[in-house]
């Protein structure tokens, strides 16, 4: 049986690397992008190929650069002809005090977290649509729904925009592509390692399960949404946050 193929943006660490590993375990050929973490990316690629006997391709890609995205598309087409699943995971957060935020940082965040998803989904969505089959899973955040942090307001805005974009993509690519959005709460990722212990405790106390999620728990949900068992889940925004006490 031919292996299915998945493309994950921002796959070298954190949630992305857990998604890479989850799909490799389930016999998918893997393509993932990285930008800053080249050593991590190639270490992950080697581990995936050694442990799971699947093809794993890592590609440096600035998702804010259309030439890089076009290059990514051409590499994928040349190697696999098609993909079965697209996971838009690449994202940045530029935390700062409100009055210290800049237009440049705001635009950079929107370009990375939102505009790139439109560009990548258009290319690969059209490809899957021609084949009348595919899944697109966008990684947003509870920050885009009802968790607001002034120090990351541009991140929050980008993730809210991604939720809206998910709805539009689901409508555009119907009836052949399922498009869904996963919205994690706090997750133990490298992005959150710099948070102060005091802040972590304050946020953990709000969570009904009293802990941050592991990246693997997010990957499990992403994998489920790509499976046949989730064939009728479409245009859905799914929170995965352990339950939040908002009193």
Structure description:
With 247 residues, the protein is an alpha/beta fold. The protein is built from seven helices and seven strands. The chain has a seven-stranded parallel sheet, sandwiched between helices. α1 packs across α7 and α4 (103-130) packs parallel to α5 (153-172). The protein is globular, with a radius of gyration of 17 Å. The mean pLDDT is 96.
Secondary structure blueprint with pairings:
Layout: E1 5-8, H1 14-25, E2 29-34, H2 38-52, E3 56-60, H3 66-80, E4 85-88, H4 103-130, E5 134-139, H5 153-172, E6 177-184, H6 197-206, H7 215-226, E7 237-240
Parallel strand pairs: 1-2, 1-4, 2-3, 4-5, 5-6, 6-7
Helix pairs in contact: 1-7, 3-4, 4-5
């Amino acid at each position: 049986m031919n292996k299915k193929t998945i493309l994950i943006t921002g796959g070298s660490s954190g949630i992305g690397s857990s998604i890479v590993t989850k799909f490799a375990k389930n016999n998918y050929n893997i393509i993932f992008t990285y930008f800053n973490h080249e050593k991590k990316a190639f270490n992950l690629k080697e581990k995936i190929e050694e442990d799971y006997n699947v093809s794993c391709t890592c590609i440096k890609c600035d998702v804010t650069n259309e030439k890089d995205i076009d290059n990514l598309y051409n590499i994928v087409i040349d190697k696999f002809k098609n993909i079965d699943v697209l996971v838009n995971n690449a994202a940045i957060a530029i935390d700062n005090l409100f009055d210290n935020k800049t237009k440049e940082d705001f635009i950079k965040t929107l370009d990375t977290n939102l505009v790139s998803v439109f560009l990548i989904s258009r290319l690969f969505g059209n490809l899957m649509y021609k084949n009348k089959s595919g899944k697109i899973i966008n990684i947003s955040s509870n920050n885009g729904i009802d968790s607001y942090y002034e120090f990351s307001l541009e991140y929050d805005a980008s993730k809210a925009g991604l939720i809206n974009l998910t709805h539009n993509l689901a409508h555009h690519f119907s009836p052949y592509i399922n498009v869904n959005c996963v919205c994690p709460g706090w997750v133990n990722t490298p992005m959150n390692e710099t948070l102060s212990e005091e802040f972590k405790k304050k946020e953990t106390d709000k969570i009904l399960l009293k802990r941050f999620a592991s990246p693997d728990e997010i990957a499990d949900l992403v994998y489920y949404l790509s499976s046949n068992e989730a064939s009728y889940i479409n245009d859905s925004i799914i929170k995965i946050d352990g339950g939040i006490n908002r009193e």
